[in-house]
Design a protein that fits this description.
This protein is an alpha+beta fold. The protein has five helices and eleven strands. The protein is 21% helix and 31% strand.
């Protein structure tokens, strides 16, 4: 992120901090808050939006008053859109992006968290978890999987793997789609918007 705080691990940090976290801010004058949807700080260990203020964090975008009102708090903290959690060491772990959350009946699911766990299945080459509109719950999760060549996979196998890893049941995908390729954005990233649209049209 070019707008705000830089996080680093240090050579003398404990191994778990260097391997599991993005470290701590580079400057002692950086201020970090992890906040909920109401802007209140979350307890240590819980996931919240990274909001930051510091000596090199931008104060606002040029000629963008309306946008600035949305992405800055009244006291000047920048709302990054990143979801993070504070490690017991005081370092920080990245949990995903707010825009990459699936809202299943009010329960917020990090698509990135589930994707990273599905990628530990040997038969999976790539995965993208996307929301599918649902008239009752609002959204349900579909796991779009590109399997390894010649491999097959079922929804039951995915769910069993995740449950064995201790994943809560509400985070389990409720639909599985096996694909050969994923649609890409102009920037070369997986276009989850296009995936959701393709799956929604197929279900219509």
């Amino acid at each position: 992120m070019s707008e705000a705080t830089l996080f680093f691990t240090r050579p003398d940090d404990p191994e778990e901090v260097r391997l599991e976290t993005v470290g701590t801010p580079v400057s002692p004058d950086d201020e970090v808050r992890l906040t909920d949807e109401a802007g209140e700080e979350v307890p240590d260990g819980e996931v919240g939006e990274l909001t930051v203020r510091g000596p090199y964090t931008l104060r606002g975008y040029y000629r963008a008053a309306d946008y600035n009102q949305r992405v800055f708090t009244p006291d000047g903290f920048y709302r990054s859109g990143d979801l993070m959690r504070r490690h017991p060491s005081g370092a920080y772990l990245v949990e995903g992006r707010i825009k990459d959350l699936i809202n299943r009946g009010g329960e917020k699911i990090s698509a990135e968290e589930v994707e990273n766990l599905i990628l530990t299945i040997p038969s999976v080459r790539n995965v993208a978890c996307v929301p599918i509109p649902d008239p009752i719950l609002g959204e349900r999760m579909c796991a779009c999987v590109i399997p390894q060549l010649g491999q097959a996979l079922s929804l039951e196998e995915v769910a069993g793997h995740l449950l064995a890893l201790g994943v809560a049941k509400y985070k389990l995908p409720e639909r599985l789609e096996l694909m050969e390729t994923f649609p890409l954005s102009p920037f070369g990233k997986v276009s989850k918007k296009a995936l959701t649209q393709r799956l929604t049209e197929a279900s219509a």
